[in-house]
methylmalonate-semialdehyde dehydrogenase (CoA acylating) (Cellulomonas soli), 497 residues
Amino acid sequence: MERITHWVGGAPEDDGTARTIPVVDPATGRQSAELTLGDADVVDRAVRAATVAQRAWGRASLVTRTAVMFRLRQLLLDEIDVLARIISAEHGKTVEDAVGEIRRGCETVDYVCGISAATKGEFSADVSTGVDVHAFRQPLGVVAGITPFNFPAMVPLWMHPVAIATGNAFVLKPSERDPSASMFVADLYRRAGLPDGVFSVVHGDKAVVDAILDHPGIAAVSFVGSTPVARYVQQRGVAAGKRVQALGGANNHAVVLPDADIAFAAAQIASGAFGSAGERCMAVPVAIAVGEAADPFVDELRRLAAAVVVGPGDRPGVEMGPLITATSRDRVVELVTQAVDAGAHAVVDGRGLVVAGYEGGHFVGPTVLDHVTTDMRAYREEVFGPVLTVLRVDTFEDALALVNSSPFGNGSAVFTSSGELARRYVHEVQAGMVGVNVPIPVPVAFYSFGGWKESLFGDHHAHGPEGVRFWTRQKVVTTRWPHQDRPVAASMAFPNV
Ligand code: NAD
């Protein structure tokens, strides 16, 4: 049985005595590896190695830092199929979808290949007589990321390229459910020439998260995961004096107006609901059909959902894989059952799906629930499964009010052919990322990613310009070079010329 270890000081690290947990293939339900779980001592060893490495890395030239990122980018592209298969085997998503995840993550590396431009400072000449001011940004030191299972490569890639390119050393605590992608990326950094200790991986559960949040040698933490843990991480990290951004869960709503191209909207929303088995923070689990859009929209969904090919993620032709754990599968089935018992209409019902040859897999088929109401748990909670709930309302205003009543505010989309209503929606919806006829409006990496309300705790969004600000701090320098022959008199009053 393969044993997955930490990565500290530029190499795998395992003292052989640690607690372990099984890593499970979601398509079969069978164990594929065992994972070493860290503790506060491992975190401390990683931080010590990072502290030493960061002293030199933080002073390395921009040319040196960007050269590593250019090599990392090429290695990610060269190894994309190998990494995609690693992701698919532990997460369950299709290999094709995993390739897409790596490409989207690699966009952040593209962005930091131009970190020299993104970190250019500011300069003002002669702010007072003979006095100039300039501002520039410096790394924070040793920083950390704590990431979820659903994008084992992309979400860490939102963080570490920006943190490292701006001169920090980075400690990653990936999800314990699909840890191997992070080890693969650690080795790519080694091959790219990153000095030992600048990138570390410490595996674990709450004990390691708490050790990171409490460690005085870590200056900042970026977290992505569910809302209750995001709230906890932000509060504990801030109490320990750290800068924290904590991206939480979501329940993204798409509104379909009667003037939309209904077939187009249904196809886009179905892909947003069932892609990656609905296990995306920007998935579209809620569709709000306005007025006469509802019947034709649901008819299209019935056809589309029934046609999705479900199976193991590495089988050619499969469009949707299993859920991450048996517990997740059982929870999704329970939420669907509760909704149906309360009056929702199961237009397509994925409960009880069995994939031949994969009877132990965590499969749920695509499910469409019509006539869902706001009191149902399947609507109120983040289902995180291949379930699309359809709510029917009469007007645009009703739809907007429903979207804005959600405690989450990650993404939202409107499907319409009216520029006027689209513009109104964009301006009035309470969400951090909005799509117009685009179901999953994940920003490209030279913008920043982040939601509103309970989808993000903290001030900065991830990657792009806000990522650069998050992983650095600004210094403002006021300079004067007095003339030897014209001495400047010191005054007790503020200078005003
Ligand atoms: P999770 O919150 O269970 O785990 C996230 C990380 O926190 C993991 O590394 C895990 O080990 C750790 N963790 C779990 N429980 C903890 C606890 N009690 N105390 C301290 N640490 C703990 O999330 P998940 O199930 O891995 O991922 C799915 C969730 O992540 C969904 O809610 C999804 O919406 C969210 N997500 C959000 C975004 C976003 O950008 N907003 C992106 C991806 C995923």
